[in-house]
Design a protein that fits this description.
GO terms for molecular function: hydro-lyase activity. This is Enoyl-CoA hydratase domain-containing protein 3, mitochondrial. Keywords: Fatty acid metabolism, Lipid metabolism, Mitochondrion, Transit peptide. Belongs to the enoyl-CoA hydratase/isomerase family. The chain is α/β, with parallel strands linked by helices and about 250 residues long. It folds into two domains: about 5-190, 2-enoyl-CoA Hydratase, Chain A, domain 1, CATH 3.90.226; about 190-240, Lyase 2-enoyl-coa Hydratase, Chain  A, domain 2 (Orthogonal Bundle), CATH 1.10.12.10. The chain contains ten helices and nine strands. It has helices at about 20-30, 65-85, 100-105, 130-140, 145-150, 160-165, 175-190, 190-205, 210-225, 230-240, and strands at about 1-10, 40-45, 50, 90-95, 95-100, 110-115, 120, 155, 170. The strands form two sheets. A five-stranded parallel β-sheet has the order 1-2-4-6-9, with helices on both faces. A four-stranded mixed β-sheet has the order 3-5-7-8. Strand 1, helix 1 (about 20-30) and strand 2 (about 40-45) form a beta-alpha-beta unit. Helix 3 (about 100-105) runs parallel beside helix 4, helix 4 runs antiparallel to helix 5 (about 145-150) and helix 8 (about 190-205) packs antiparallel against helix 9 (about 210-225). It starts with a strand and ends in a 9-residue tail after the last helix. The relative contact order is 0.12.
């Protein structure tokens, strides 16, 4: 299996999620999604800012309400798409992630950050509360941590982000590439059909009560055993050999 790298590459605009940036991000996320070999997607960025969020020039009153709606709608679509994709998506963060950029990190399945990275939702300071970023933030951070970020706009350090669960790992900047690759290569050894089933199931059960979640996942485990790769993996384990995935 292979890893697809998506790089936000407009450092002069601090990798702002303009309408065109959001459209190309959506396109990139969907690009190889049907490929039997794709196993993982890594999102990284050029320059000192991972992503500064929406392009505020597009949100000034010169643009009409229809344009503003478009920007937020496609942004929500991209954020939810990340969780709907059949492969894990890793954010590789080296620098500042603010507002919708922080939302992007929170929306990824895994996030690896360098020690210098920071995370903030500073919209309140310019009179535009980060209500859409709050959706992703409130689902990956304890409520009081999320609300402090939203009400004050003060950034979390990489270590604080790790402590509260916004990122999975924090490493020195010179180890960021290596650490992300390590996780990515581990995922690449797995079966795509098994990863797809597991990811979709995880997000579904998170919104359910305990009994419903167990009922649903019990059925999924049974279904997983009917997959060719499910049986192959078990046989390989019993025979002490490496599994050969069908896809």
């Amino acid at each position: 299996g292979f890893c697809r790298n998506i790089i936000l590459s407009n450092p002069r605009r601090r990798n702002a999620l303009s309408l065109s940036m959001l459209r190309s991000l959506r396109e990139d996320l969907l690009h190889d999604v049907k490929s039997k070999e794709l196993r993982v997607i890594v999102i990284s960025a050029e320059g000192p800012v991972f992503c500064s969020g929406h392009d505020l020039k597009e949100l000034s009153s010169e643009d009409d309400v229809k344009h503003h709606s478009q920007v937020f709608e496609i942004c929500a679509e991209v954020m939810t798409l990340i969780q709907k994709l059949p492969v894990p998506v890793i954010a590789k963060v080296n620098g500042l992630a603010t507002a919708a950029g922080c939302q992007l990190v929170a929306s990824c399945d895994i996030a690896v950050a360098s020690e210098k990275s920071q995370f903030a939702t500073p919209g309140v300071n310019i009179g535009l509360f980060c209500s859409t970023p709050a959706v992703a933030l409130g689902r990956s951070l304890p409520r009081k941590v999320a609300l402090e970020m939203l009400f004050t706009g003060e950034p979390l350090s990489a270590q604080e982000a790790l402590m509260h669960g916004l990122v999975s790992k924090v490493v020195p900047e010179d180890k960021l590439e290596e650490e992300t690759m390590k996780i990515s290569q581990k995922i690449c050894k797995s079966s795509k059909s098994v990863l797809a089933l597991g990811k979709a199931t995880f997000y579904r059960q998170m919104t359910q009560d305990l009994d419903t979640a167990y009922k649903m996942t019990t059925q999924v485990m049974v279904d997983n055993l009917t997959l060719r790769d499910g049986q192959e993996g078990i046989e390989a384990f019993i025979q002490k050999r490496k599994p050969v995935w069908s896809h």
